[in-house]
């Protein structure tokens, strides 16, 4: 992979404020964006997430006021809502282990140590009290993969935390589903008038955020 | 950017269990990996993180027992510890706003609405009680960018949550620094004997994690 292309993508991307609502992501590009979500790594491989792709225009209109009125909700080509597990239970873990057994052609017994490791860490262990936050964090890895792939494809994106998760859960019928909204990502093509497209990217100097312990 | 290359990278990567400790990431590749961390998006652009690159072999030896004894700590080429803000205070926000003013050549006054938005959401608002988790989540976006860039470059990586954050904070002198350990990523080149390299990637079927609301 050409390093210059990657670097260009990292610098080209920005949190797009205004999308051109006439431009749609091609099916082929979307397939790769979906794959970036699905193939994202997660702790123990547990994938404690569901990604909702909101295609229905009326649903998008309903979500807009719960998103601080931001136009990206209605004007983007694809609008992805990231939802994560409220809690992790043993049934979920066992469903996952069955999936491993199926894909890799191994016995469930051979995964028993792995099962104990997961339970001892996330269900009965140190991360149990904050497992909801654990699940939320995993979705942000997927958010990273989604946004980097988008940038590599020349597709604009806007990660959105500026939303009311509770209202989203209501509108999207997530109450009682075991999943809750944590964030969203709007994807598509920037509006040529978006003044933020030409604003300089603001980062702290590298030496103040990256420390080498030698 | 060639779509096949991206797809290949997504499928090629895996959580590397065993690194070849004789192989080092080149300076040029590392520069792009560092840039992927630094350029990662974060909520409001606040970058509530510091990335510690542990080059000192003795320090790595000390971290290993606090990492469930995993060999990646000592055998990888580069070992990155992701740390995030314990809490967000107004001073930090103002330092960031000064940075925006400096980079974009705008007045601090022009950023006053933005300042109010940040404070109203993260310091006095709905996210204030869990702002530590908010900061942690942002670092996972950076983890995503780091891992995807690594895969694109043919560099192996292992994201590591299996560590004792408290012990890390002690060993790395983070107590009282305002930052805490949230996770780590080991990077380098797989050991040819790593049996996990050839294990099939396990994901739930796409249709069970991606839902289209049409």
Can you tell me about this structure?
- The structure is a homodimer of 214-residue chains.
- In chain A, helix 5 packs antiparallel against helix 6.
- Chain A has one domain (3-87, 129-209): NADH Oxidase (3-Layer(aba) Sandwich).
- The first copy, chain A, is 43% helix and 15% strand.
- The longest helix of chain A has 22 residues, at 131-152.
- The first copy, chain A, has helices at residues 3-12, 27-38, 57-63, 72-75, 90-104, 112-123, 131-152, 165-171, 206-209; strands at residues 49-54, 78-85, 156-160, 179-188, 210-213.
- Chain A has 214 residues and is of the alpha+beta class.
- In chain A, strands 1-2-4-3 form a four-stranded antiparallel beta sheet, with helices on both faces.
- The interface between A and B is large, with 74 and 75 residues.
- Strand 5 (210-213) of chain A pairs parallel with strand 1 (49-54) of chain B.
State the secondary-structure class of chain A: alpha+beta
Q: What is the average of the pLDDT values of chain A?
A: 97
Residues in helix, % of chain A: 40-55%
Biggest sheet of chain A: strands side by side, in what order?
1-2-4-3
The biggest sheet of chain A, with number of strands, parallel, antiparallel or mixed sense and barrel status, is: 4 strands, antiparallel
Topology:
2 copies of one chain form a homodimer.
Chain A (H helix, E strand, L loop, with lengths): L2 H10 L14 H12 L10 E6 L2 H7 L8 H4 L2 E8 L4 H15 L7 H12 L7 H22 L3 E5 L4 H7 L7 E10 L17 H4 E4 L1
Helix pairs in contact in A: 2-7, 5-6
């Amino acid at each position: 992979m050409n390093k210059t292309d990657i670097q260009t993508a990292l610098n080209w991307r920005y949190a797009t404020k205004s999308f051109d609502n006439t431009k749609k992501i091609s099916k082929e590009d979307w397939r790769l964006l979906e794959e970036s979500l699905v193939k994202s790594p997660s702790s123990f491989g547990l994938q404690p997430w569901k990604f909702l792709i909101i295609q229905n225009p009326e649903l998008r209109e309903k979500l807009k006021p719960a998103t601080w009125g931001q136009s990206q909700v209605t004007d983007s080509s694809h609008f992805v809502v990231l939802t994560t597990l409220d809690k992790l239970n043993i049934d979920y873990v066992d469903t996952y282990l069955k999936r491993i057994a199926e894909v890799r052609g191994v016995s469930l017994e051979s995964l028993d140590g792995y099962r104990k490791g997961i339970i001892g860490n996330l269900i009965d262990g140190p991360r149990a009290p904050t497992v909801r936050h654990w699940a939320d964090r995993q979705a942000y890895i997927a958010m990273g993969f989604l946004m980097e792939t988008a940038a590599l494809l020349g597709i604009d994106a806007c990660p959105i935390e500026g939303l009311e998760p509770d209202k989203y859960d209501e509108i999207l019928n997530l109450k009682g589903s075991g999943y809750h909204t944590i964030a969203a990502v709007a994807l598509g093509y920037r509006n040529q008038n978006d003044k933020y497209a030409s604003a300089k990217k603001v980062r702290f100097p590298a030496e103040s955020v990256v420390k080498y312990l030698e």
